[in-house]
């Protein structure tokens, strides 16, 4: 495998780093793949930890098997997901990563190692929605394949609600409610790192007097006086605080605290978008669609992937791997079930 560093011109004086990986041996031009990350700060390797660099791993795997692969830093983002331009990142709207992906695929198609008639798009989470829109909005550009890794499928408003409220409540019911009475111990959740990641790294961040009602104020006092444990009712106390936190996330005009949630400007730009399901009929039937979805993915419920499969079936999107052409071109990868309580984004 060989690599070549590139700089992508995103227009309006905005540039970002990218890297092209391609086979070290053999003659080109070769089929090519663009890797599109999900929401939030993401570098070109899609770094999730010291030994977890998803796009670097995918790029290496594909390049060693005859593909050219392009990956890029999201605008305003540098190595290890570092926000290197707060002003640029804080003004991000949904249209920015969508247009950046379009720019990137055009650059990829122009590379001498690339067969521009053999282009595939891989997108994770929001990136899955973006590559679907690229395929749907550009009918004159033939994409061989789009690979949707745990894509955002439903209406973004519903996805936002699930992320802020639905998933933490679900986690609390299944994992934190040790006594099966609809509540959890504040002492215990302060030691639960997964729960802490859901509430911005600090329980007091959401259970604070800044949300001015009696429930959250009392909960905040319990957090500050940890020697006196308190049990929080999941539906009548915890859920309302989460809903208020979600409402507050749409307030303001700038990105002040990465731990507190997404930028209000960005959230406002996606909340009324149509769902991925609603645009599938605009994707060419000549484009293969592969769905990869972890059964235990907290960011995107696996049930939604089956809705996506059903929609493709209704559209009679052909499946080259089946004698029955009414089946969609889809496949699934499932990991451990929720009962094993391995709550990691897969």
UniProtKB/TrEMBL annotation:
Pfam families named in the record: Hydrolase_4 (PF12146)
Gene Ontology MF, one: carboxylic ester hydrolase activity
Domain Serine aminopeptidase S33: 49-157
Keyword annotations of the record: Hydrolase
The name this protein goes by in its record: Alpha/beta hydrolase family protein
């Amino acid at each position: 495998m060989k690599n070549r560093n590139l700089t992508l011109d995103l227009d309006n004086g905005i540039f970002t780093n990218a890297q092209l990986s391609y086979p070290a041996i053999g003659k080109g031009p070769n089929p090519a793949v663009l890797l599109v990350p999900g929401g939030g700060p993401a570098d070109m390797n899609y770094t999730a930890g010291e030994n977890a660099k998803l796009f670097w791993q995918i790029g290496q795997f594909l390049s060693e098997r005859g593909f050219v692969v392009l990956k890029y830093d999201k605008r305003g983002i540098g190595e290890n997901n570092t926000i290197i331009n707060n002003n640029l990142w804080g003004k991000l709207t949904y249209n920015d990563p969508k247009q950046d992906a379009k720019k990137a695929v055009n650059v990829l198609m122009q590379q001498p190692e690339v067969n521009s008639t053999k282009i595939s798009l891989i997108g994770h989470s929001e990136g899955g929605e973006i590559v679907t829109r690229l395929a749907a909005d550009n009918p004159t550009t033939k994409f061989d394949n789009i690979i949707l890794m745990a894509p955002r499928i439903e209406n973004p408003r519903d996805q936002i609600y699930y992320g802020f409220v639905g998933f933490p409540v679900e986690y609390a019911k299944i994992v934190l409610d040790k006594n099966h009475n609809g509540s959890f111990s504040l002492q215990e959740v302060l030691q639960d790192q997964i729960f802490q990641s859901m509430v911005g790294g600090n329980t007091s961040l959401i259970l604070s007097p800044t949300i001015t009602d009696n429930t959250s104020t009392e909960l905040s006092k319990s957090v500050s006086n940890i020697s006196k444990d308190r049990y929080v009712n999941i539906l009548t106390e915890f859920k309302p605080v989460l809903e208020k936190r979600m409402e507050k996330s749409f307030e303001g005009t700038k990105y002040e605290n990465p731990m507190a949630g997404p930028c209000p400007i960005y959230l406002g730009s996606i909340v009324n978008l149509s769902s991925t399901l609603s645009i599938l009929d605009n994707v060419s039937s000549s484009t293969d669609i592969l769905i990869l979805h972890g059964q235990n993915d907290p960011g995107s419920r696996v049930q939604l992937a089956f809705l996506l499969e059903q929609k493709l079936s209704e559209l009679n999107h052909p499946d080259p791997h089946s004698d029955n052409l009414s089946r969609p071109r889809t496949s699934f990868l499932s990991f451990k079930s929720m009962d094993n309580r391995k709550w990691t984004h897969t």
